[in-house]
């Protein structure tokens, strides 16, 4: 560890602190206490082997012969500081003379002849390496992340352990602590995990986890509220587009998922390399049906007809298209004709025709209900990798590996226009490219294409850092978006550093950096973002793009995750507006003070079911109309979901019916205008009310029959007497 001066100070030599046996992971200054003359007193260094060394600084102030000499020295230091990049103004008083006060001098002036000494050593005793550290100077709190997935919170300088918790069995690569020292944030790249932990109350503020090896495909729900993503880890995740958080993970496949699609708002289908197509129920969150083929094969594409009754999937080999019945699960037909892998399938929006794109350079139009003669084939000059119908079904757009987008008339399969996107999508030089980014457009092409909701524009993305939007009628580029600025990905920079290039190619591709500890297993030849230790960067690319049914937003899947772009300002990602004041303690405090509206808003921000249920049930019956009026549109959908969940198992039926009634009275007009946004929550709330209605109806009928029986028995008894 070396201590450098930001400004140039005469006579100062950077101090070297050596005493660790392994690499230093973190180094931090202690907060300067008042009355110390603006002088550094302590520095803490942490090494990878779990050692913390406390360094103290001792000063030896030289005595000056007279005040004139001292002023001359201070003035010369100010001049050197000024011409070396500093301001030099802080060393002079208002009358232009040098100030002798220690507090007005830079810290480096005192360190010219200072001596550093190790005063204490501490050890974590975790039997694993330290991978990440952070330090809160205001609170003297040190947070340490270990390779075993354990983190520890320590108070300095006593090095007393305040809190220790095991998050997972994966390496913690980054940690952070907020200004008040209450919230701790952790990042685990191998599991794509983000955690925010409040250590005083021992509760999670945020707990999110992405796909372990990256996303592969995605699909919008019919109402545009939910996005389903399929990953290389074989799992499906459901994301709320308004909050940006994942609320469900479905794990049924044993291989990477290649395609996913919504059959309706409550059923999502997925195809995988494991040779199965699976249907998942989004009410019970389970796999309720599996579709297989007579001979094992790997699926590369998937589609479902507009009615949701027929499922088709294309394969890598033997280049067939399999058709199943959604209800019975039986294999209906096998479509043959392609001589290459089927890259994409899509149904006509209003008819029963199917378009299939293949690497054999053709797009075939199949009529699944007539099957008269051979399918119509549209030939291309190169391999076709993507296809999409316009929402009205009159046009079809295809993309080839030559970077060409072709627009076809569906009625007679005639070519309308072509859009050459090679120059638009070009950009970014990879480590192994022998040409510059401007001259290497031949390797860039679109792998996914879709129409906008009105059918006037085409959205296309591929193996590049750009996503392009084209106006179809004029064949012009409207706008292009750069999906990532992460320089650790290959293909982001347009110009590479020439010192890293040799005659035989990049000289650092197979060299380990040695800067970070690597605890993953070595799997040579891996090409995806997995546990394999590749010495080459992961390439930036876009796997799939899709427009929402609302036409107000679109999403894309890249190496970095799911990107959602929206025209609405309220769609800008805000992680549920979390601040230091949004805590479970604040909820309880507002409840005690009778501020039920504020307590409800805070509990909705925290997104904890137990807190929201407590606030709902502690709100007085007469205050419900006033509390409902304080709820904004941004929290309405989430509140409806919580009310439906609480009502399902609660005996307070009239109480929750009052919540539902005033929600509809207050926000009914807004729900009607934005029906697609609230339809899912409204159906959930309606289902809960319907369940209670059916139960009460059955009980009331039983009571009525019982009362009728008692009345009849009474009349019989009176008649006999």
Notes on the protein architecture:
The protein is of the alpha+beta class. A four-stranded antiparallel beta sheet has the order 3-4-5-6, with no helix packed on it. A four-stranded antiparallel beta sheet has the order 7-8-9-10, with no helix packed on it. Helix 9 packs antiparallel against helix 10. Residues 62-71, 87-104, 509-522, 529-534 and 571-576 have low confidence and may be disordered.
Annotate the secondary structure layout.
Layout lengths: L1 E2 L11 E2 L7 E6 L12 E6 L3 E8 L8 H17 L23 H4 L4 E9 L6 E7 L4 E6 L3 E6 L4 E7 L7 E4 L5 E6 L4 E6 L4 E7 L5 E6 L5 E6 L3 E6 L5 E6 L5 E8 L2 E6 L4 E5 L4 E6 L7 E6 L5 E6 L5 E5 L5 E5 L6 E6 L5 E6 L3 E6 L8 E4 L4 E6 L5 E6 L3 E6 L5 E6 L1 H4 L20 E6 L5 E6 L3 E6 L4 E7 L18 E2 L2 E2 L35 E6 L5 E6 L2 E6 L17 H9 L3 H11 L2 H10 L5 H6 L3 H16 L4 H21 L1 H46 L1
Antiparallel strand pairs: 1-2, 3-4, 4-5, 5-6, 7-8, 8-9, 9-10, 11-12, 12-13, 13-14, 15-16, 16-17, 17-18, 19-20, 20-21, 21-22, 23-24, 24-25, 25-26, 27-28, 28-29, 29-30, 31-32, 32-33, 33-34, 35-36, 36-37, 37-38, 39-40, 41-42, 42-43
Helix pairs in contact: 4-5, 5-6, 8-9, 8-10, 9-10
């Amino acid at each position: 560890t070396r201590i450098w001066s930001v400004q140039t100070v005469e006579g100062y030599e950077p101090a070297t602190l050596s005493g660790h046996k392994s690499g230093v992971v973190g180094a931090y200054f202690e907060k300067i206490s008042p009355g110390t003359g603006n002088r550094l007193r302590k520095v803490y260094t942490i090494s990878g082997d779990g050692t913390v060394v406390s360094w103290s600084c001792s000063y030896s102030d030289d005595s000056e012969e007279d005040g004139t000499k001292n002023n001359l020295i201070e003035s010369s230091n100010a001049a050197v500081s000024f011409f070396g990049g500093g301001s030099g103004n802080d060393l002079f008083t208002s009358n232009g003379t040098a100030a002798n006060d220690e507090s007005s001098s830079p810290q480096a002036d005192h360190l010219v002849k200072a001596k550093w000494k190790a005063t204490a050593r501490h050890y974590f005793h975790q039997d694993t390496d330290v991978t990440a550290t952070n330090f809160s100077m205001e609170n003297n709190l040190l947070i340490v992340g270990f390779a075993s997935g354990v983190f520890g919170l320590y108070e300095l300088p006593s090095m007393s352990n305040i809190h220790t918790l095991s998050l997972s069995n994966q390496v913690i690569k980054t940690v952070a602590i907020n200004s008040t020292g209450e919230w701790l944030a952790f990042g685990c790249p191998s599991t794509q995990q983000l955690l925010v932990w409040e250590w005083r109350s021992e509760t999670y503020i945020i707990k999110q986890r992405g796909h372990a090896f990256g996303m592969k495909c995605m699909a919008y729900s019919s109402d545009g509220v939910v996005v389903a993503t399929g990953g290389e880890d074989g799992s499906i995740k459901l994301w709320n587009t308004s909050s940006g958080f994942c609320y469900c993970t479905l794990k049924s496949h044993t291989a990477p998922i290649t395609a996913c699609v919504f059959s309706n708002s409550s059923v999502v289908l997925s195809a995988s390399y494991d040779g199965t197509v699976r249907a998942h129920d989004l009410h019970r969150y389970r796999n309720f049906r599996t579709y297989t083929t007579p001979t094992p094969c790997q699926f590369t594409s998937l589609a479902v007809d507009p009615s949701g009754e027929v499922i088709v999937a294309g394969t890598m080999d033997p280049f067939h298209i399999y058709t199943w019945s959604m209800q019975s699960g039986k294999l209906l037909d096998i479509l043959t004709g392609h001589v290459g892998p089927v890259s994409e399938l899509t149904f006509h929006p209003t008819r029963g025709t199917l378009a299939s794109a293949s690497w054999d350079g053709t797009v075939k139009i199949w009529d699944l209900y007539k099957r008269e003669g051979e399918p119509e084939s549209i030939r291309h000059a190169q391999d076709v990798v993507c296809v999409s119908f316009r929402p009205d079904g009159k046009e079809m757009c295809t993309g080839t590996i030559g970077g060409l987008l072709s627009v076809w008339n569906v009625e007679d399969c005639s070519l309308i226009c072509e859009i050459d996107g090679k120059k638009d999508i070009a950009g970014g030089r990879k480590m192994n490219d022998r040409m510059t980014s401007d001259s290497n457009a031949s390797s860039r092409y679109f792998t996914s294409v879709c129409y906008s909701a009105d059918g006037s524009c085409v959205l296309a993305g591929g193996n590049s850092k750009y996503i392009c939007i084209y106006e179809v009628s004029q064949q012009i580029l409207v706008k292009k978006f750069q999906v990532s600025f992460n320089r650790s990905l290959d293909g982001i920079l347009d110009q590479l550093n020439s010192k890293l290039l040799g005659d035989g190619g990049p000289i650092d591709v197979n060299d380990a950096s040695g800067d970070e500890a690597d605890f993953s297993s070595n799997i040579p030849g891996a090409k995806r973002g997995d546990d394999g230790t590749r010495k080459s960067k992961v390439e930036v690319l876009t796997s799939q793009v899709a427009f929402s049914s609302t036409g107000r937003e679109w999403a894309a899947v890249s190496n970095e995750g799911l990107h959602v772009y929206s025209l609405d300002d309220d769609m800008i990602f805000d992680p549920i507006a979390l601040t230091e004041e949004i805590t479970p303690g604040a909820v309880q405090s507002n409840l005690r003070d009778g501020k039920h509206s504020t307590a409800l808003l805070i509990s909705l921000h925290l997104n904890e079911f137990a807190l929201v249920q407590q606030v709902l049930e502690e709100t007085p019956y007469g205050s419900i109309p006033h509390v409902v009026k304080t709820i904004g549109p941004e929290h309405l959908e989430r509140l409806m979901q919580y009310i439906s969940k609480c009502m399902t198992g609660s005996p307070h039926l009239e109480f929750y019916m009052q919540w539902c009634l005033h929600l509809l009275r207050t926000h009914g007009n807004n729900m009607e205008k934005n029906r697609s946004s609230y339809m899912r929550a409204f159906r959930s709330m309606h289902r809960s009310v319907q369940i209670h209605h059916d139960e009460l109806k059955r009980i009331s009928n039983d009571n009525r029959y019982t009362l009728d029986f008692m009345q009849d028995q009474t009349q019989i008894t009176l008649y006999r007497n």
